[in-house]
Amino acid sequence: MARAVASGLLIQSGPKPALALSKVANLRAPLFPGGVVIAARRNISAQTENNSGINGVVSKRDSVARGAGVAEAETSTSGSLEQEMLRAKGDSYFRVDKRPIILFDGVCNMCNGAVNFVLDNDSEGKVRFAALQSEAGRALLARSGRSPDDISSVVLVDQVRAYIKSEAVLQTLRYLGFPFPPLGLAASIVPLFVRDVVYDQVADNRYSIFGQSSSCRLSDNRFEERFISS
Fold first, then answer.
1. Staple partner for 111: which of 93, 102, 105, 220, CB 3.0–4.6 Å?
2. For the whole model, what pTM was predicted?
3. CA atoms of 161 and 181, how far apart (whole Å)
4. Are 132 and 227 in contact (CB under 8 A)?
């Protein structure tokens, strides 16, 4: 039994049910005897779209996703390069002058007072200084493995390592005149976590308690060579 449908010919053999009209409507090529069907272009196109990504075909969504991944990778690479450049710059401050460097908050009145205290009690000029916010400070922070934007703690940097928080304070006392070295040694008996809790309480409230200033005061030109800014 045969019946004409649209522009093609539907072939039925025996009692088998006819093809659904919805599928027949998609055909763009005639049907041949024996029940063999040549697939329509529309079906082939749809199948190709569904299989995008296969045989090198990439969908628009995949392209956007890959583009975002590339941008993220480029940003990460750029950040890593900046860190490496800062670390290299930080190393340069110890090539000629081997003295340790104290990194302090340059706009904190308490920190500036501490710097003046060190200047008054380090008559031999054993330590140098750099504001955390300065170019030198950022480079030395990166060299110490810290974020260049982290100004939460004083940092004492020497040729080998860096000290932060209460440990930086106690290590600084070693470079001052008597009686501060033995006082620092005695204070080190207190557990580190206890010392750092006290330090954090003071540091977190340093602006509200002691206020801020525009820069560190230099007593006279004798101390100028001990400050690094760039």
1. 105
2. 0.65
3. 20
4. no
Token code pair at residue 171:
């290590």
Token look-up 């290299």 returns 88
Q: SS3 for the chain, per residue?
A: CEEEECCEEEECCCCCCCCCHHHHCCCCCCCECCCECCCCHHHHHHHHHHCCCHHHCCCHHHHHHHHHHHHHHHHHHHHHHHHHHHHHHHHHCCCCCCCCEEEECCCEHHHHHHHHHHHHHCCCCCCEEEECCCHHHHHHHHHCCCCCCCCCCCEEECCCCEEEHHHHHHHHHCCCCCCHHHHHHHHCCCCHHHHHHHHHHHHHCHHHHHCECCCCCCCCHHHHHHECCC
Close Cβ partners of 230 (under 8 Å, ≥ 6 residues apart): 134, 135, 136
Domain segments of the chain as ranges? 2-50, 93-226
Can you give the pLDDT of all 230 residues of the chain as single tens digits? 444 444 443 434 454 444 444 444 444 444 444 444 444 445 545 555 555 444 444 454 555 445 545 545 444 566 688 889 999 999 999 999 999 999 999 999 999 899 999 999 999 999 999 999 999 999 999 999 999 999 999 999 999 999 999 999 999 999 999 999 999 999 999 999 999 999 999 999 999 999 988 665 555 577 889 999 88
